[in-house]
Amino acid sequence: MKKTILLFFVAANFIACAQEDGAVNPKEVQRIESVLASDDMRGRRSGTPDIDRAGNFIADEFGKAGLQPLQGNTFLQSFSMLRPKMLSLKYEVDGADADTKNVIVITSETDLKVNEKSGYQIESIAQGENIFQRAQMIVNSQKNTIAFVDNSFAQSFSKLMYFKRQMFKSPANTIFVLGNQPKQYTIKAEHSFEETKYANVVGILPGKSRKNEYVIFSGHYDHLGIAREPVNGDSIYNGANDDAAGTTAVIMLANYFKKLGDNERTIVFAAFTAEEVGGFGSQFFSKQFDPSQVVAMFNIEMIGTDSKWGNNSAYITGYEKSNMGEILQKNLKGSAFTFHPDPYPQQDLFYRSDNATLARLGVPAHTISTSKMDNEPNYHKVSDEISTLDLNNMAEIIKAIALSSKTIISGADTPSRVKTESLSR
Ligand SMILES: [Zn+2]
Question: What pLDDT, on a 0 to 100 scale, did the predictor assign at position 9?
Fold first, then answer.
């Protein structure tokens, strides 16, 4: 009996070690990358059935890793975007027809009729204000609103059409009217909509003690689809580096932290859709959180090639905007790995990836990357294939991310918030 029990313990211990090691190694990188970046995925273009296959694979991996859904009973976080087409517009002031060029209706309703008695919030954008910034705030407020825009903006007024190019389905309507608020008015608008369905893939490991404090690991799993003209007989944008690499890291970190099983804070693992077409996936995802409860976001973009400093190094975008980079550095002390500040600040990478939405809300949300933005020959090309990646280095980067986040996961460290007033866009 004893011998068997002893053997059992030895075996169990052996399996536990093997699994922990198995969570982050080049073989595992290879396994996940070769699915996500395969020709079968046809470039994972968001809004097509091709990306659904990738989404289902990631959801499956999250399930096997033992994550829980963030909401409901699925890892797929679905949402729709609308492209509106205006069919008719009528604007009446004191019973007489007025110029419809002075009205922009942003709505998800096919038939909308609004007048001064509709109970809409009334706003005004005054001369000298930043019209675009104010308009953005009004649209984001998610309240039925009519905003009267000062006549000094007559030239730029039509640019507010930007807000209805592609938009989230919303129960709230926003109407911009150029000119002063009339006593009596009626606005009638008819639209048709082209709807596109998207899905992020999101799973969590609930924290042992600080359940409402979230640490996010993310990457985007969409890419560019199929090229119109083949290049050397290849037309599939495999996106092995951009950003199957980041998605692979997210899946491997999910396995790593589940096996570790000691996270005091809740860890959120997210694979975003629609990064390449406007960042809609991370925008929708960000709306599901109270930003004050998000302690840190590690967004991972293009870690498949060596950085400009060679192996065992990566950079952090917006390094100076919080002290998160310093915390990560501290936790890497004694390892062979170094994080650097972003060496390409003129490229505005901090604002160009999925960390930006939460960073604008004050969350220490940074992107970790190794991409040589001045010299990355396969960037956004059909040649971004798994054969161009350094899988060993990738495994080291993923280990370094895991190690560097240790004190944030445990609650010992809390990065400083991003000062939103210091952001340039
Ligand atoms: Zn990318």
Answer: 45
